[in-house]
Amino acid sequence: MGDVEVKALDGVTIDIIKGEFLGIMGASGSGKTTLLHLLGLLDDPTTGRIVIEGTDLCNLTDYEKTMFRLYKFGYVFQDYALVPDLTVMENVSLPAMLRKDRDDQKILDDSHDILKKIGLFDRRDHLPRELSGGQQQRVSIARAMVNKPDILFADEPCANLDSENSRMVLDLFREINEEMKQTIVMVSHEPWHQEYFHRIVKLGDGKVISDEINGHGK
Amino acid sequence: MGKKELKVAFLLALRSLQRGSRSSVILTVLIIGMCFTNMIFLPALFNGIAQSVSQQVIDYEIGNVLVSPKSGDRYVNDVDATLSLINGMPGVERATSHFSRGATLKYRQRVLGATVRSISPNDEKSISPLYTKMIAGSYLGDSDVGEVIIGKPVAGDPTIRREDEFQPSLGGVRVGDSITIEYGNGYTKEYRVKGIYYTGWPTADSAVYVTRTDMALAEGKPLTYADSIMVKTKPGYSDKFVKNELLEYGVSQKVQTTRDLLDKSMGRIMQSFAIMNMVSMIVSIVITTVVLFIIITIKTLSSRRQIGILKAIGVDKEVIMHNYGFQVIILSILGIILGLALTMLLAAYMQANPIVTPDWSASLYLTPMDLVTNSLILFAASVVAGYVPAYQVSREDIQSSMRS
C-alpha cells in the first residue's frame, strides 16, 4: 500500500458577498470543513488563491495570517472551543485584548455589549463548565463577534446541540446577520438549517455541485 | 511581543494555575521547593563544618596571620622585639606568642599526658575568645604565677568511672584544686586550678594554659623564644595585606595567612566537599528540569486542540509559548520561595541544635549570595525546562493541533 493522494477540494471557486449568510452544505467528506478552513486561513491550499478585498491571503506570512484572523475573521466551532479556565467575560474579551486599537474601556464595553446581545451578561463571571451546551455556543459566538469581524466562520455550530438549542443559535446568527449586516459563512449538513441561509453552496467529492440563492432565506 | 500580548499570555498562565488542577500545582511547587532545599542543604552543611573548623583554628591556633619559625629554626627567636615590631604595624590589632611543652599532669591517683601552652593572658584576649569560654572559675591574669586553667575534658567528671570515660581525664578536678605538672625537662610544680574552660575545639580543650612567667620558670631561663606568633588583623585589613606588611617590615620568619594554612590543611577536604556539592546541585537541577519538562509537556500535549483553537482565533504562537513560560516562571518562583522558607527553617533549627561531634560542631552556613545564586540557577533551569515543550507545541500548525 503506497500513499494515496486525496484531493479534499478540487477546482472550487466561490465568491462571498458582503452581508450575506452563506451556507456550505454537503454530505460527510464532501470537503465542507476543508473549504471553511481554507477560507478562514486555518489551512493552506496547495494551489489556488484566496482573495479578500484585493489581498491574496496565500501570500501572507504566518504572523500576517494570524493578525488577519484576529482583526478580520471570527470563528465558531462545533465543540464551542472555549478556554475552560477563563470566565465567560474573559473568553469573550480574549481576542479584543490582543488588538492594538482597543483600550481596556473599549474591550470592556464591547464585551458587555455582545454578552447582553446574546443574553448571557448575568453569567459573565461563570466558567464554561457551569453553562449548558447552548449557552457555551452562544459565548463562542460572542467571542467571535467581539472584534466585529468582516466574516464570521461557523463550522457545524449546532452539531453538539439539541434541536431547541440549535434553533436558538441559528436565530442568533440570523439576528446578527440582519441587525449588524454581519457576513456569515456556515458549514452544515442538516437540511433544515438551509432555511436560514441566503445562499447555499453544495459540495460533493470536493467540487461545487450547486451554488444557489435560497428562496426561503430571509 | 508587545505589552498586550504579554498581558494575555500572563492572564492565560495565571488562570490555568488558579483554575486548573490544584493538586498538580501544589505537587510541582513542593518538588521544586524540595529540590531547592536539597540543592542548598548539603553545601550549606559542608560550609558550616568548614566554617566551624576554620573559625576554631583561627580562634585557638593561628589567628589571622601566623608567624612561625623559618626553615631550619626550631623557634621564633627574639620574640619580644618581633612582637613589638608587629604590634606597631598598620592593620595589626594585636599579636601574641605561644609556646608549648609536653607534660604529665597528676591529680590524686590520675596521671595524664597533656600539652601546656604558655600565653600572655591579656594579649591573648585580643586574639582568641578563650577568656569567654570559662565554665568555672576565672581566666588567667598577666601576673598570675602558679595558676593554671584547664580544659573541661582534662578536668574530667567525678561521676564517670575511669573505664567509662570517652577520653582519659584527671577524674574530676575542680576550681581551687591543686594539680602537679611534670614537664619533659624534669621540672615539676604544683599549680592551683584557677578556671576550667570549654571551647569545643579539641586541641584547645585537651590542653592547659599557664602564663609566660610560669613557663619561663619551667624552662629555667627567660622566654625569649616562641613556637609561633598569632596576629589578629584590624577590621578592614585583609590577611594578605598584613602578611605582606610583615614581610616588608623585615619579619624574617615564615609568615602565612589563615587561607594559606587552611588550603594546606583542609584543601583536600574542601575539594571533596566541592565535588559532593556539585553532584548534589546537578542532581537537584536535573530532577527539577525533568519534572517541569514532563509537566509542561503533558500540559501542552493535553491542550493541543485548545492551542490550535487559540491560534485559529488570532492568538499568536508567541503568546501561547509565553503562556506556558509564565506558568513555569510562577511555579518555579513559588517553589523557590517554599525552598527558601524550608531552608531558613532548617537553618534556624540547626542553629539551635547543631550537629556536634568530638572534633567539630556545625550548623548550616548560608550566605545571601548562596541563596541568590542557587535561586537563579534553579530558576534558569526551570524556565528552560518549561520553554522547550512550549516552544515545540506553539510552532505546530493549526490543522495538526486542532485534529488532536
Would you mind describing this structure in some detail?
- The complex is a heterodimer of chains A (218) and B (404).
- Chain A is an alpha/beta fold.
- Chain A has helices at 32-39, 62-72, 88-97, 104-118, 133-145, 163-180; strands at residues 21-26, 51-52, 55-56, 73-76, 151-155, 183-188, 199-204, 207-213.
- Chain A has a 6-stranded mixed β-sheet. In chain A, strands 2-3 form a two-stranded antiparallel ribbon.
- Chain A is globular.
- The N and C termini of chain A lie far apart (50 Å).
- Chain B folds into 2 domains: 3-57 and 266-403, no CATH class; 74-252, no CATH class.
- Helix content of chain B is 55%, strand content 18%.
- Chain B has helices at 3-19, 22-62, 79-87, 121-127, 152-155, 202-205, 212-219, 239-248, 258-302, 304-312, 317-352, 368-394, 398-403, and strands spanning 65-68, 92-107, 110-119, 134-137, 147-151, 178-183, 188-197, 207-211, 228-233, 254-257, 355-356, 361-362.
- Chain B is elongated.
- The model of chain B has no long low-confidence stretch (mean pLDDT 90).
Order of helices and strands of chain B: HHEHEEHEEHEEHEHEHEHHHEEHH
Looking at the structure, the CATH topology of the domain at 21-84 and 133-140 and 149-213 in chain A is Rossmann fold
Number of helices of chain A: 6
Based on secondary structure, the structural category of chain A is: alpha/beta
Number-wise, the strands of chain A total: 8
Helix content of chain A: 25-40%
Q: What would CATH call the architecture of the domain at 21-84 and 133-140 and 149-213 in chain A?
A: 3-Layer(aba) Sandwich
Strand order of the largest sheet of chain A: 4-5-6-1-7-8
Structural class of chain B: alpha+beta
